[in-house]
Amino acid sequence: MVSVSEARNLIMDNQISVKKVLLPLAEAHGYILADQVLAAFDTPPFDQSAMDGYAFSYDNWDGKTELIVIGEIQAGMQSSNILKPMQAVRIFTGAPLPTGADTVVIKENVSVTGNFISIDNRQITKGSNVRSRGSQTQTGEIVMEEGQLLTAPAISFFAGIGIDKLLVYAKPLISIVITGNELSKPGGILSQGKVFESNSFGITAALMQLNISPVSIDFVEDKEEELLGVIRNRLGVDLLILTGGISVGDYDFTAEVLNKCSVERIFHKVKQKPGKPLYFGRYNQTVVFALPGNPAAALICFYEYIVPVVAYHTKKDYLKKIKMPLNDEYKKIGGLTHFLKGKTNLETVSILSGQESYLMNSFSIADCIIQLDEEKEWYNKGDLVDVLMII
Fold first, then answer.
1. DSSP string of 286-319?
2. For the whole prediction, is pTM greater than 0.70?
């Protein structure tokens, strides 16, 4: 049996290689950029009007004389105009400046008489209301470094500089296997001796918090040969999660079957409550977690051990860990780390009632998991504890 800290270290020491994938820009939101990106073009690609108004040459204007308007340029048009001194063109936002122009005066600051305009704004300066070529990005420039989260603005930025694919850190492929003879599907009739299955729903929902969907979910009775076949079929994924059958009962076959599938056991059992039977192993490029069947224990193990694995592969931070003062006194047994369902307020964290590993009513309103140290037995109100925020 290993300690919680030993389990965490062994898990991270046995991770498979991080994968990168080239994604279409439209699918890259929420991923982490896996390489720096260079600009292929100047952006804007030409001197561009920032406003609706009139383009002219500031240096060839005496500051008072009317300018003659010789044409009009809309956004998206190619300009063939070549401005001479004291000439202007009507121009619209986003349109390219004609040759010879370097300044735009907004339409609200001019007076129009026939084909002539007089500029009423004496505060205008050379280059006013012009987006210069390359003022956002220049050809060959590093526009974003590896490790950046691809937000909606980042996606828009890349589209605006002509990039349609990005190399990102891939999400791991995850399969879930649920074991147990006693499990029934929610919504159906509950036969004698059966309980409604919830682990597939809880773990899938927790994965959705990480913007990941499992590639498969299998439901297996406590039959060794059936479990053996399912596990062998799923050992090609990056992360295989099993629930149930990992303790020491007569029908707890999971650890034995994993051994028959040539999964290398890294550890089995952790000095913690709940979730003591937790199993972790590896098969080639697949890491394997076998979680206890009790729903609260399964989800606590997921948040504490599996989320960091996903974060390692995607290079993203998901759950915040903080220290907070306890709002309660609490006595525990020494020798086991305790993970408790908790609720935070502005300044403290409270331990909820109903901490047994099968009870989900308190977990359903919890916003955090409180970690109490292995050897410490008595906690006073106000003692600082580690708190993992799960929402």
1. EEEEEE-SSHHHHHHHIIIIIHHHHHHHHT---S
2. yes
